[in-house]
């Protein structure tokens, strides 16, 4: 598993991701908005699963520290994915503690909680791989996170008529991971502008 290769940096990068999650927004300049639009257009053209409007709306939440290049936009997309996964885990835990659901739904929630815990590890490792310019590894990890959301949805669909709890959160994480994967591929095709990551 890729986690072993990057575990020495994971805690540092998890702290970095948590402390710079894009919650403090500012007025986006027209050039940056054009850049976001073109990035989302390219990604939605390449992947039928990426929703262009979702992409634009999400990437507009870019803090001032990340507006200098495409790599920064990629970091923001991964931060958003981590924030989504972290918040969803908290929601799973609250739902499990409430005991308001039938045994089948409770088992699904437990399974999804484990899946999302793995997803957080993969997101942090993808961030580390991205900064280290191991773009192929970062892409594989982001695609695996996408699989996590599908697996969580499938837990509920095993029972006919069962509603998929937190379908919106699964959808959002799927989108953000797909967008991140697309940007990683774009970054890998241009000269490096990423900072060096030392152990």
Automatic annotation (TrEMBL):
Domain annotation Pectinesterase inhibitor: ranges: 31-183
Q: Which domain of life is it from?
A: Eukaryota
TM spans, by residue? none
For this UniProt record, the keywords arranged alphabetically read as follows: Disulfide bond, Signal
User: Where does the signal sequence lie?
Assistant: 1-25
SUPFAM superfamilies, A to Z: Plant invertase/pectin methylesterase inhibitor
Q: Which family does the record claim for this protein? A: Belongs to the PMEI family.
What name goes with this protein?
Answer: Pectinesterase inhibitor domain-containing protein
Q: Which organism is it from?
A: Solanum pinnatisectum
């Amino acid at each position: 598993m890729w986690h072993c290769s990057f575990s020495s940096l994971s805690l540092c990068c998890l702290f970095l991701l948590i402390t710079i999650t894009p919650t403090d927004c500012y007025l986006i300049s027209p050039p940056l908005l054009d850049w976001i639009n073109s990035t989302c257009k390219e990604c939605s053209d390449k992947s039928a699963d990426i929703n262009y409007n979702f992409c634009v709306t999400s990437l507009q939440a870019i803090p001032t520290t990340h507006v200098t290049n495409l790599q920064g936009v990629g970091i923001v997309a991964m931060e958003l994915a981590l924030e989504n996964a972290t918040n969803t885990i908290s929601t799973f835990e609250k739902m499990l503690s409430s005991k308001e659901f039938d045994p089948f739904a409770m088992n699904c929630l437990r399974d999804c909680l484990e899946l999302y815990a793995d997803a957080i590890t993969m997101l942090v490792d993808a961030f580390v791989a991205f900064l280290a310019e191991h773009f192929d590894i970062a892409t594989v990890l982001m695609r695996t996170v996408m699989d996590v959301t599908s697996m969580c949805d499938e837990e509920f669909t095993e029972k006919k008529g069962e509603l998929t709890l937190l379908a919106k959160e699964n959808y959002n994480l799927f989108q953000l991971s797909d967008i991140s994967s697309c940007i990683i591929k774009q970054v890998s095709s241009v000269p490096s502008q990423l900072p060096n990551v030392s152990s």
